[in-house]
Amino acid sequence: MKPTAPEGPGTVHRAVLPVVMLSLATVVSAVASLNTAVPSIARDTRAGLTELAWIIDAYALVFAALLLLGGAVGDRYGRRRALTAGLVIFGAGSAAAALASDPGWLIAMRGVLGVGAALVMPATLSTITSTFPAAQRTRAVGAWAGVAGASAIFGLLVSGSLLEVWSWRSVFWMNVVLAVVALVATLAVVPESADPDAPRLDLTGAAITVAGLGAGVYSIIEAPTAGWGSARTLLGLAASLALLAGFAVWELKRPHPLLDPRLFRIRAFSTGAFSLTLQFFAFFGFVFIILQYLQLVKGDSALVGALSLVPMALAMMPTARGIAPRLAAKLGPRRVITAGLLLVSVAMLVFSLLDEDSSYWLLLAGLIPLGAGMGLAMTPATAAVTDALPPEKQGVGSAVNDLARELGGALGIAVLGSLLQSSYRANLDPQGLPGPAAEQAKESLALAARLGPQVAEQARTAFSDGVQSAFLTASAALAVTAVVVAVLYRAPRPAAANSGAAPGDQADKLDALPEGETGGRGEIRYTRQV
Fold this sequence. Notes:
The protein has 19 helices and no strands. It has helices at 11-33, 38-45, 49-77, 79-98, 103-131, 134-165, 169-189, 203-226, 231-253, 267-297, 302-308, 310-331, 333-351, 360-387, 394-427, 435-443, 445-448, 453-488, 506-511. Helix 4 (79-98) packs antiparallel against helix 7. The protein is globular and about 70 Å long.
């Protein structure tokens, strides 16, 4: 079913690229865009901090959990079909979410959006690699990587602009419009391609992944209400670890696993993936918290809040595209990744100083090292994952890159959001309020602000305490990650695979994998993403 690429530049390629870029931007921007609407969602739906965390995280969690399966579906049944189905699901879920009036329905629909995104994202890149000839493929994939990186900031700015004029529902209607335009363009332009030799779908492995990640994130998000030391929280976390361990055992027995656990024996691969996970843990956790801080504590509008984060992007983009590759070539990726992680850790430490009286200059002092540190660490960590694998296994390398980013984002929102909620509830003491009103105040700052100026002031102080606690934890986590990378990272040996390497070298670790294995991604050959 693979299309025959026309000789030369071809109008097909020029038409396909903007279509898949639009599809990619549609699903990636949705990871961050709703963050600007969190305060207005809280006011309109009376959602507490726990429910707000679920509204944001349901999308990222389902997206991450189904990403590998989504790529396998596209390989087996057709990438154009996967794109089409994903855009339909994404658009329909967005329309249903726009009509929601309670937090539970919003959470469910955000999960539906995640299902669509998991089909769309891998299909966009595999469409490029299966459609473009080798001479044009590298530039096309470079454009894909650029759009994937810039879409989150684009989503924040566009949603912030919409909220100046309309309600939070306009963010979902924006998703509908983008999905419809991308769907029409896909049906008109994108050729079908598939892998006729793709293995059967590993539905059992996918189900175990969803259950394991779901149990863990559920336990973390609900911990502030249930108690971090409660039986429900501890049993949920234990069940999550058991399920994920079971996933590893299951995948080891599969001839064509979604993700072969033996790849993580390769230090460059495992430390690169670990670094990416923690980078996006910090980034998406930061965005979730800081936009609430700017709007609810500092009183900024949604657009001003989004614009306040632009210096981070201005520091990140040139660092990732130009400075990081040159430094990695000169100093080695280990040092550059470590330096980047330490810069992000310093940024989180600066953010932990924010309170209700802080000026924008303090926020800016953290945004610059956050952007520069992400740019420094992200590019060589991404390359480390793909460089650690031979050409025939680049599919799984790129899949793990995508998975690390989405999983890190889901965990960052869950963990840092829960720490914020725990500290907020512990430090808020709305004296003089009747029981129901006091409990309502503890649900979220947006609800507390409606209960009078005295309660609102106490709530802003308690929220600032939670911000400090969350960012201090993030700073410590990034510092530990920097130490892990500095100690454990070992660059792969390019010639090892053909040099009769001794046991324990990279060659043996790669040879231990099933021959021709691509991690369930069929014939996809992802070029390195930077």
